[in-house]
Specification:
alpha+beta; Glutathione S-transferase Yfyf (Class Pi), Chain A, domain 2; Glutathione-S-Trfase_C-like (chains A, B); 4-stranded mixed beta sheet; 221 residues; homodimer; Glutaredoxin; glutathione transferase activity (chains A, B); 8 helices; transferase (chains A, B)
Chain lengths: 221, 221
């Protein structure tokens, strides 16, 4: 059986979960409190992060390398388009969300408001929370500009870029940090992706100490 | 004419320069003091980072997305192998150097000892420098373990993984922060990559205020 070592509210784990589910690759989910640096886990993944995917005799780490591997090894359905320029645009946006959005928004809101409590590293830094709350507006507006011209974020087909974005936003939505009223096109995009069967397992996630808000799993939010 | 907006001692810029040179794609190099957030530069790249590659009407950002694009659009010579598992190993190691090595080593040594001065952000934090000097040993040993079993870092062919690693190490070598005596296989690997024609432009880099050390451009270091 394939196994994914993950953490429910990790956007990087969620991006891989969405790819696996979309490609109908079954995995057993194993929750990993990766920051506790369990020796067995470090042996599987010297980088010490989630997600880690075990498939047969292989142990795969790094969410982007895993998603590229899944594209190479399980090409249907494709989450990367065919042309070099279209593929570039998907990869640019995956990096946009996993690097820039993560640094400016996810780490500042989710990192301060949830992970500090879960990891036991003190109280949220309010300057960070404020900076994250400000930055998410800019990012939602950027998404709106893209979605004004395209059906999905990177083009007219759904791709890894949508999964990367939805992975971050869904984590933030769990702590009610996304203002869905800011942009109708962004809300419509999220409603489309949220209603996919691949999304179901994310909507069932529960983090102890953080009850799921009512709108989180509601397809008509 | 193609243009690469770069900064000489940026490992991400260097990785792209190596890929371009290996594929014999000519570019004009334009030095970009990206931290000054020049308005024209931000227009080209809203992420505000180097490198940015202009090719024809296209403007490409994010070093990993650029390298993948170059593989897709200019496949010969290949810097990614063909099999899904071999490609995964290259991508895992690119991420290893660009994420983990960068965070634990490059940002702590180069960031503190050179970028602070260049950017005018104060004196080096000695705790960071100490942590970086300690972490690089672990990383050199990890490379030695890989190179004990393989001709190049990710397998028996040279790949983007070697360029990512050499991009970081060459920047650190400019400030004499790499102990090449720690591992013979790592030194041999670096000598091989350093002697490639693609590496020449990196060896000619000069940063004002930081004279090149004698061994830096010496192929027999």
């Amino acid at each position: 059986m394939n196994r994914l070592y993950h953490y429910p509210i990790s956007p990087f784990s969620r991006k891989v979960r969405l790819s696996l589910a979309e490609k109908k690759i079954e995995v057993e989910l194993v929750e990993e409190r990766y920051w506790e640096q369990d020796a067995d886990f470090l042996l599987r993944n010297p980088a010490g992060k989630v997600p880690v995917l075990r498939m047969g005799s292989q142990t795969l780490s790094d969410s982007t390398a895993i998603c590229e591997y899944l594209e190479d090894a399980y090409p249907t359905p494709a989450l990367l388009p065919r042309g070099a320029e279209d593929r570039y645009e998907v990869r640019r946006l995956v990096a946009w969300f996993d690097d820039k959005f993560h640094q400016e928004v996810t780490s500042k809101l989710l990192g301060e408001r949830m992970f500090r409590k879960v990891m036991g590293t003190g109280y949220p830094d309010s300057a960070n929370v404020k900076a994250g709350a400000k930055a998410i507006k800019y990012h939602l507006d950027y998404m709106a500009r893209l979605l004004d011209q395209r059906r999905w974020l990177a083009g007219n087909e759904m791709s890894l870029a949508d999964f990367a974005a939805a992975a971050h936003l869904s984590c933030l939505d769990y702590i009610s940090d996304v203002d869905w009223n800011r942009s109708e096109v962004v809300k419509d995009w999220y409603a489309k992706i949220k209603s996919r069967p691949a999304f179901r397992s994310l909507l069932a996630d529960q983090v102890p100490g953080f009850p799921q808000p009512a709108h989180y799993a509601d397809l008509d939010f």
